[in-house]
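Thread: Newbie trying to understand structure tokens

Hi all, I'm a second-year student working on a class project, and my supervisor (Dr. K.) asked me to get a predicted structure for one chain before our next meeting. I've only ever worked with sequences, so writing a 3D structure as a token string is new to me. If someone could post the tokens and maybe explain what I'm looking at, I'd be very grateful. Here's the chain:
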Amino acid sequence: MDRVLERLQKAEEIGAIPINFAEGNPVEQIKEQTNGEGTDKGIDAVGYQAMAKGADREEPAAVLNSIIDSVRATGALGIPGLYVPADPGAPDEQAKHGRLMVAIGKLFEKGLRLGTGQCNVKRYNRQLRDLIISGRARPSFVVSHELSLNDAPTAYDKFDKRVEGYTKVVLHPGQ
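---
Reply by user tm_fold:
Sure, no problem. This is what the structure looks like when written as tokens:
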């Protein structure tokens, strides 16, 4: 689920069904694709910088509430998206203190399992490296640009502003 066409195209290239929330309610689109059941699992990989359809500012709980609505009863949610205890730039007073309006009653009623936290990179980095070296994993399909380290500030700015064409950037220090 996204609104950035390049990311939706990447998802489709690997066999996923892209859901463009700029084209309509994402929960309804997911329910339509799953005969009303919803998905088995949902992942919030965005975090507090999420934006809802048509929003011109951050809506920190938008993705959380969408996945709670779109995952079937007894399903699971994975939330590696970044949430912070304090955000001085948040859109409202509650979010500034890390408090979000999340449909906790619906989460409970549906019996959803929940896993949160940052990815334990050190636990998996060697295994993932070996899968890449052996050719069994090919994560490079998400890379949109390979640039010199000098281009990092401009590339980050474009990625952060979700400029079209910037999905993931690989920086090469020697160039």
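A couple of things are worth pointing out once you decode it. The chain has a mean pLDDT of 90. The chain has seven helices and five strands. Feel free to ask follow-ups in this thread.
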